[in-house]
């Protein structure tokens, strides 16, 4: 693992990632991480709907651990492309944070998950205002509490971008940022996923997104339809749909305005960025060409795939290294006991 970092919290309880000997390589890590079932994780959540802009609304799932009071820490969790607040990786991390005594808000990005039908607009990699609304909602519900924004994949790009923007437009209570496999250079990602060995993922995302567009247009028949017949790649989709739907000139403009990489040097709050060199979606080189601020640690692992990190070692009952790593960092940051499990 390459670690580029300044002084951080003492969190040596989680050593660098070592893959399971039967789960080697980025593709295997990605597939096993995505599809291998684990024990069902259940905890109570309260659904909230909040107003945003353009008449749209967002759906949040709020979970408060027993004994929590305002002033105790909270976290906003942000899913990735094609996911929602109930995505397994979001639920697993939420469960660990709740055991640390951290209040957790899992947000559905605009139109995703239980938020479908509440918004005519769509989420994208640069729409940080939605995350800001959720963070401010939690800050108002938890006055005086330190807050972390924790993002996964596309949600991790949003987390980093919001952290950078907060240097000029502070988010009340924002204390730290954690980002797992963030696509910090969207243009590079769109090319990387088109490599022959990665095209299956590109095609799968396109099928998913086209189905979501059809569902949205059926629900809101007055939306002007966009012909997606020519769309074969994510780049095509962003060129013909994401960009025009959100006021960008084209995909190149969307990528340039929405990538968090150029903004990372502006981040002033503490944080952790985790990535894997063998991620089939997101290339590692952009991380090597950015000067990370002193407060923001980058851990660039040789393996792990995309949100895989299926480990040789068990971390409290399972082999999900990423979940344990994120929880351990926040436990150290906020001085919370980190129980196993």
TrEMBL record:
Keyword Hydrolase applies: yes
Family to which the UniProt record says this protein belongs: Belongs to the AB hydrolase superfamily. AB hydrolase 4 family.
Name of one Pfam family that matches: Abhydrolase_1
Name of protein: Putative hydrolase of the alpha/beta-hydrolase fold protein
InterPro entries (alphabetical): AB_hydrolase_1, AB_hydrolase_4_CS, AB_hydrolase_4_sf, AB_hydrolase_fold, ABHD4
PANTHER family in the cross-refs: ABHYDROLASE DOMAIN-CONTAINING PROTEIN, ESTERASE YHET-RELATED
Annotated keywords: Hydrolase, Serine esterase
């Amino acid at each position: 693992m390459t670690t580029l970092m300044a002084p951080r919290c003492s969190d040596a309880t989680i050593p660098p990632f070592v893959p399971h000997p039967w789960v080697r390589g980025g593709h295997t890590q990605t597939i096993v991480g995505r599809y291998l079932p684990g024990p069902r994780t259940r905890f109570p959540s309260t659904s909230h709907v909040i107003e945003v802009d353009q008449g749209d609304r967002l759906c949040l799932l709020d979970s408060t651990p027993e004994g929590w009071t305002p002033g105790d820490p909270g976290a906003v969790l942000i899913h990735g492309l094609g996911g929602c607040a109930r995505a397994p990786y979001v639920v697993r991390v939420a469960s660990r944070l709740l055991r640390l005594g951290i209040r957790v808000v899992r947000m559905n990005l605009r139109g995703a998950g239980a938020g479908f039908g509440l918004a005519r607009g769509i989420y994208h990699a640069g729409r940080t205002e939605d995350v800001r609304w959720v963070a401010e909602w939690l800050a108002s519900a938890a006055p005086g509490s330190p807050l972390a924004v924790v993002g996964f994949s596309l949600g991790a790009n949003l987390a980093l971008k919001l952290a950078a923007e907060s240097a000029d437009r502070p988010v009340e209570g924002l204390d730290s940022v954690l980002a797992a496999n963030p696509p910090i250079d969207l243009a590079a990602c769109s090319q990387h996923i088109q490599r022959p060995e990665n095209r299956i993922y590109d095609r799968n995302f396109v099928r998913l997104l086209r189905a979501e567009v059809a569902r949205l247009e059926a629900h809101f028949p007055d939306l002007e339809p966009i012909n997606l017949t020519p769309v074969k790649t994510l780049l095509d989709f962003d060129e013909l749909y994401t960009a025009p739907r959100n006021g960008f000139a084209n995909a190149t403009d969307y990528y340039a305005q929405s990538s968090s990489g150029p903004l990372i040097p502006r981040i002033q709050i503490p944080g952790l960025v985790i990535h894997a060199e063998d991620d089939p979606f997101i290339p590692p080189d952009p991380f090597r060409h950015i000067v990370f601020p002193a407060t923001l640690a980058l851990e660039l692992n040789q393996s792990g795939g995309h949100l895989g990190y299926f480990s040789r070692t068990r971390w409290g009952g399972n082999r999900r290294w990423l979940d344990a790593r994120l929880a351990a960092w926040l436990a150290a940051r906020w001085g919370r006991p980190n129980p196993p499990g």
